[in-house]
Amino acid sequence: MRFFGSLFFTAIFFFPSVGSVQDGFPDGTAISLLQRKHFVPSYDDWFDGYVKDWGEANNVAVTVDRVNFVELPSSLAAEIDAGQGHSIVELPSSPASFVSGLRDLSDVNQQAMNMFGRRQDFCDGVSYLPAADVYYGFAAGYSLNHGNYDIELWTEAGYPNGPATYEDLLLGGRAI
Predict the structure, then answer these.
(1) What's the rounded Cα separation, in Å, for the pair 76 and 42?
(2) Which residues, including other chains, have CB under 8 Å from residue 146's CB and lie 6 or more apart?
(3) For the segment 1-26, what is each residue's pLDDT rounded down to a tens digit?
(4) Euclidean distance between CA atoms 105 and 122, whole angstroms
(5) Are 9 and 139 in contact (CB under 8 A)?
(6) What is the pTM of this model?
(7) CATH no. of 5-135
(8) What share of the chain is helix, strand, coil (3-state, %, to 5)?
């Protein structure tokens, strides 16, 4: 199977009837994506064009549905309960609480490692369950969650530009 590269931070594949990773797609293959509505609307427009081009190039009918960011976990839960839903659901964090309803993605993860090498430990930490030796998701990357700071509080604590290191964060946070 070919992927959409690093476009997904944590992608959960729900393919109850699709087999292993393969080089091509048979005629009639359809993939449906569920992702958040992006906070930059032009990104959604760009992504729709990218998916359309990718689908045409790979003989795959691709549809994209979007919900508000906070609705992704409940949407995935509803799809698992119904036993049907989107092929791929993009989540902003680990899908560990859904592991029993997700497809084993060990084949997808192994192919990605074969093609691109070992990923960062973080990716395994949010997609691999060692107790069962199974990948329940595919983390294609990591997105930093930058903090927002009240600069006046940080200035009073001795950090006029906010924290620059984890140690600054720890010490300044204690001072505040």
Answers:
(1) 25
(2) none
(3) 323 222 333 444 443 333 334 467 89
(4) 17
(5) yes
(6) 0.67
(7) 3.40.190
(8) 40, 15, 45
Is there a contact between 93 and 126 (Cβ–Cβ < 8 Å)? yes
Matching residue, tokens 């997700």:
102
Tokens of 32: 């449906």
47 phi and psi, to 5 degrees? -60, -40
Which single residue is written with the structure tokens 């590269």? 5
Q: What is the CA radius of gyration of the chain?
A: 19
Q: Where in the chain is the domain with CATH 3.40.190?
A: 5-135
pLDDT per position as a tens digit, 102-136: 888 899 889 889 988 888 888 888 888 898 898 98
Query: In the block, which residue shows the tokens 């290191």?
Result: 165
Q: Give dist(CA 72, CA 151) in Å, integer.
A: 32
